[in-house]
Amino acid sequence: METVFSKIIEGTIPSKKVFENERILAFYDIEPAAPVHVLIIPKKFIASMNDVTPEDLPLIAEIHSVAQQIAAELGIADSGYRLINNCGPDSGQAVPHLHYHLLGGAKLGALTGNSASHA
Ligand code: AMP
Question: Where is the motif (Histidine triad motif) (predicted)?
Fold first, then answer.
């Protein structure tokens, strides 16, 4: 499926890259929600977390490893950070290509904008 992220992967839309290998690309979010806001994506098309298969799990593990590496390189490993995946409409997922937001560089706000309830 063609999305803004597939165009970033193929290079037809520019991005400020932080990390790249054969399987994974990381680049700065165009609308940063924190002083450090990097998106980490698989180059393989996976629409959302709902579409991750058991075969994809090594790739997901590698994304965590890449997140750890980027956090260290950008100086937020010790101060702390969030790694967030939005999946589906209620999460606000806007781009249907699996991605993880790496956020840090300041005290981050509440985890969600809504009041939570387990009722
Ligand atoms: P989500 O709401 O989880 O789907 O997040 C999508 C993210 O992609 C948003 O934070 C956008 O700011 C970001 N985004 C959209 N287009 C671009 C782009 N061309 N370069 C970098 N980030 C982008």
Answer: 97-101
Span 74-95, pLDDT tens digits: 999 999 999 999 999 999 999 9
Full DSSP string of 19-74 = EE-SSEEEEE-SS-SSSEEEEEEESS---SGGG--GGGHHHHHHHHHHHHHHHHHT
Asked whether the predicted pLDDT for residue 114 surpasses 90, the reply is no
Dihedral of the CA atoms 41, 23, 61, 6 (nearest 10)?
A: 20
> What atom of ligand 1 comes closest to residue 95's alpha carbon?
4
pTM above 0.85, yes or no: yes
What CATH fold (topology level) applies to the domain 4-104?
HIT family, subunit A (3.30.428)
- Residue 89: CB within 6 Å of ligand 1? no
For the chain, the average pLDDT equals 96
CB 29 less than 6 A from any atom of ligand 1: yes
